Amino acid sequence: MDRVRISLQGAAPVVAVLAVAGIVFTGDAVAQGAFQAGTDEVTSEATYYSAVQAVLTRNCVGCHGPNAAALGGITPPMELTTYEVARRWSSRIATAVKNNYMPPWDADVQHKGVFKDERYLSDEDKQTLISWAEAGAPMGDPSEAVAVVNLADVVTSSAEVAPDGSLWRAGVPDVTFGFEEPVLVCEEIEDWQPRLPMQVVDGEITEPKWIRSMEINTGPSVHHTVSSHLGVGVPGRGPFEFPEGWAILLTEDPYVSISMHYHKEAGPGTAVFDNTKGGMRFYDDGDVIDYVVETNIQAFMDFTIPAGHPNYPVYNETHFDEDIYLLSMGPHAHYRGKAVKIELQRPDRPFRETLLWVPDYDFNWQFQYELEEPYLIPAGSTMYITWWYDNSADNEYNPDPTVDVSGGPATTDEMANARIYFARTEPLGLIAGGEIPEEILERSRAAEDRARRRALDWESASQSCGVSIASRSR
Ligand code: HEC
């Protein structure tokens, strides 16, 4: 069956019609396809130009394309923008999409349409890539190229270049944060997840500011990053931009903290310096701020996963005693994390609803799932986070299946949380540049303080690589 070729120009409608008419691909079609294969005149099969280029451009080139590396994290091994490269990678492309390894996106398909920037590959597109690879990656005729998407739109349409050469998708930031000196990720390190301070390196913060967008700009070997004030960075993700009138409050603090995840091969000659930056854009004085966005990771450490256990569940609950709008969820565990479900029990419903189901968690991709529309969680609701862990030898990422693992902050500990971004529902009508109620300032300071206290000691984290990133006044 996999040698059947059908025209994939306008693939979706053709397939749909065939399905409705109940037509089955016959041996004839197979024979004809096979007969035609290998000749340049073949038009009845998916070629690079007739179909594959469009599929790659729509689904892959945002990361596997020009400038993607500079815009968000680990570097994909190739740019899928030319026939030559796509052909060379065709069998690995087929494997990667068959295994659902690419495009990276962990939320179950039941959530299709719910989250921003979702990455589901349609069955048709998946099949196009697989049959094309199996047919030997035919090129087809460049004149057939389907101009589905403008490459520039996918990649860097809105990016602006800062004076130092860095690219920012949300525009050049008002304030840029960076490490005091580049962080050395030394040779021995394969995997390292320190929490580090970042200070203002460009611009200044002399009074509290309302953040309208935040963006992380990472270097090579950085797998993902998380910061209360800078958001979450995974490869290929753009900035967080809040809707008009929604903002995070940044107090006068000249430091923000960021959790880095460095991942590379260990060994001689592999040391790299990382100079990740974070940027923020602020509301202008006079703009109206109605909703103050806050974040909470729902930390929970009180559990122990028995050595060798293949499917150990951990339950984490959060109760809401005020109405809130939920903006996003970012489940977080380490190497043994296997699956996670976030459910909500509202007081007005007899059943728990599933807000997020990740059946096959991959710690390499720390997605922050942003809802297309803020979701009202009424007072009296409880959020249930269930994590499942694989502490057995079958888990290829498991560093040591012979030990019990407890909740804790180190990479070798486990975590069972989910970062949420939310806002209280009462519109505040605050004016940027004007008075900020003390209660709101206090909440913002307390949240960042909590994050720092919970974190690994900055100095000891950075010392593990022999580099001194001095511990800062907190
Ligand atoms: C969110 C960004 C992103 C998107 C979208 C994406 N990729 Fe990737 N891809 C990566 C990164 C980063 C790597 C390298 C790291 C890794 O292998 O985990 C990679 C690796 C790969 C590899 C190499 C895997 C191997 O065999 O080592 C293939 C093949 C691939 N991607 C194909 C695709 C295809 C095909 C699509 C679209 C259907 C796609 N990718 C979409 C980021 C992305």
Shape: globular
Write the CATH fold name of the largest domain: Jelly Rolls
Number of domains: 2
Helix content: 10-25%
Q: Output the CATH class name of the largest domain.
A: Mainly Beta
Bound ions, cofactors and other small molecules, one mention each: heme C
Write down the overall mean pLDDT: 80
Distance between the termini: 64 Å
| Beta-strand residue fraction | 25-35%
Number of strands: 26
Topology:
Layout: H1 11-21, H2 27-36, H3 48-59, H4 68-72, H5 83-88, H6 90-98, H7 123-134, H8 151-155, E1 160-161, E2 167-168, E3 175-178, E4 183-185, E5 191-192, E6 195-202, E7 209-217, E8 222-227, E9 231-233, E10 240-241, E11 246-250, E12 255-263, E13 272-274, E14 277-282, E15 288-289, E16 291-296, E17 304-305, E18 312-319, E19 324-332, E20 337-345, E21 353-358, E22 369-377, E23 382-389, E24 405-406, E25 417-424, E26 430-431, H9 438-454, H10 458-463
Parallel strand pairs: 11-16
Antiparallel strand pairs: 1-2, 3-6, 3-14, 4-13, 5-12, 6-12, 7-10, 7-11, 7-14, 8-9, 8-12, 15-26, 16-25, 17-24, 18-23, 19-22, 19-25, 20-21, 20-23
Bound molecules: heme C.
